[in-house]
Amino acid sequence: MAGDTGAPHQIFLFRSQITARRFNDESLRILESLLVFKDVKSQIETRSDLKQFLRFESLSIFHEIKYKTVYQKLFILQFFVRAFALIGDTESCLALKYEALLFRDVKSSSDQSLHVSHLEWLNFAHHSLDQGFYSIATQASEKALACFQKKDVADAKTGDFFENARVIEDIKRLKDRAMRSAASGSVQAQAAEYLKRKVVEKSRTCSSFRTETKSAASTLFRNGIKKRHARELRKHQKADTTVLDLSKGQAGRIVSFFVPICVKREFSLSYFKTEINMAGSSPCASCKLLRRRCAKDCIFAPYFPSDDPHKFAIVHKIFGASNVSKMLQEIPLHQRADAVGSLVYEANARVRDPVYGCVGAISYLQNQVSQLQMQLAVAQTEILCIQMQQEPNLPAQLDQDDKSLLLASCNNFNSIPQYFNFASSSNVIQDPLKRESLWT
Q: From 19, 103, 226, 256, which residue has the greatest number of CB atoms within 10 Å?
């Protein structure tokens, strides 16, 4: 078994086969024997090492085969397609398969044996669509439709009209499905969805803030008390003026009347000043929501102002006020603002996606990056094909052995789906959100 002591020897043997540029079935059999393991961990590590090795070697090999014949280039391309399919690197497999099909399509004008049928394009479109490469599936569907329409025109006299119409309808349906999938994951669609979500969140925030402002009964009660004490103060001031204007003969009566008035005045004035001081410093949003007195050293006050109650409300709903307080006390003072910003962002993400939160958004963006990298890889392969077309052909005629070798490999090319099934049936955890591009 490859998971035993013979695994290092087999890995070394496969590396030596590739280094010696032996692209044959024996090398593929060695690679297939490497992928049989007793435990999943060893299998994942070996597949990752082989993926990096094959990607690095394939780039150097593609530069080496510039001046080889067309059949030799296609044979090497198809070898790497099968190798990447065996190790489960679907992205690299589809990229090289697409390059091989484009190269054959270009060269078929001078050699009809290299013609790409509509079935080959259609199978490739299905594989690309299943793996999430929607734009590539759309292009492959267009190629399949163009090839079939050319064949339909050539066989107009002998072809079955209804059968041809059914095939064209199937290809168009596949193309429409790929285009809809690509449109749903495009940057424009994501931006429109994001703006729509922001408008809904803003409307919810404004409505909750307006509701809280209308229901602030404690503020109205405090303002009423302040007005009442202000009226009492003005009334006692008028009474003092009246007492001072009384005659000296009524001094004893003045004293007995003036003492309780002064006491009442002093009490009302001190209470009035206390109310003014309390109204001047508004409690923070956390103390207002928790209905408690806001102390001078309140840990929430610098980060949750009273004019933004929704900010603390959502953090309190997700994490809890006591947990946030403990967390802020353990963090240095200069890092608390960043910590509060992170908590608010994560709380908003948890409200939108209670299961994944920020991780779901990160994974979604990683998927978009992977798809864009795949499109970049396809564009680079097309550039490489154009460069290979512009190079001068060698004067020597193509060897008949090369043609027979390519035809044999083309027959094996149709067996690639079983390699996909082999890779998926193995105990390998493949995350489509963490693909790496072949050309980066």
A: 103
Find the length of the chain: 440
Who contacts 67 (Cβ-Cβ below 8 Å, separation ≥6)? 391, 394
How many angstroms separate the Cα of 91 from the Cα of each of 22, 105, 130, 436? 23, 21, 12, 8
Residue range 347-404, pLDDT digits in tens: 888 888 887 788 888 888 888 898 898 888 888 888 887 877 776 554 444 445 554 5
Q: Is residue 378 part of a domain?
A: no
pTM (2 d.p.): 0.42
Q: What is the DSSP string of 117-131?
A: PHHHHHHHHHHHHHT
Alpha helices in 245-335 (DSSP H): 251-280, 285-290, 309-318, 321-330
- 335: in domain: yes
Distance CA(103)–CA(110), nearest Å, equals 12
% helix, strand, coil for the chain, step of 5: 75, 0, 25
Residue 65 pLDDT level (bands cut at 50, 70, 90) = confident
Does 424 map to a domain?
no
Contact 438/377 with Cβ under 8 angstroms? yes
Rounded distance, CA 389 to CA 363, Å?
A: 39
Note the pLDDT tens digit of each residue in 148-207: 887 655 554 455 677 878 888 888 888 888 787 777 766 666 666 777 777 787 777 665
| pLDDT band of 219, cuts 50, 70, 90 | confident
User: Are both 260 and 290 inside the same structural domain?
Assistant: no
Q: Which two tokens stand for residue 182?
A: 């690509």
In total, how many domains does the chain have? 4
Whether residue 106 sits in one domain with residue 11: yes
Residues 6+ apart with CB under 8 A from 351: 314, 317, 318
Asked whether residue 212 is assigned to any structural domain, the reply reads: no
Beta-carbon contacts of residue 343 (< 8 Å; ≥ 6 apart): 315, 319, 324, 327
Domain that holds residue 267: 223-280
Encoding tokens for residue 146? 């163009």
Q: Which residues contact 159 (CB under 8 A, 6 or more apart)?
A: 152
Q: Are 410 and 81 in contact (CB under 8 A)?
A: no
Element (H, E) at 69: none
Is residue 226 a contact partner of residue 272, using CB atoms and an 8 Å limit? Answer: yes
Half-sphere exposure of 349 (CA within 13 A, CB side): 14
Residue 419 and residue 422: Cα distance in Å, rounded? 5
Q: Are residues 275 and 287 in the same domain?
A: no
- Measured CA to CA, the distance from residue 265 to residue 33 in angstroms comes to 99
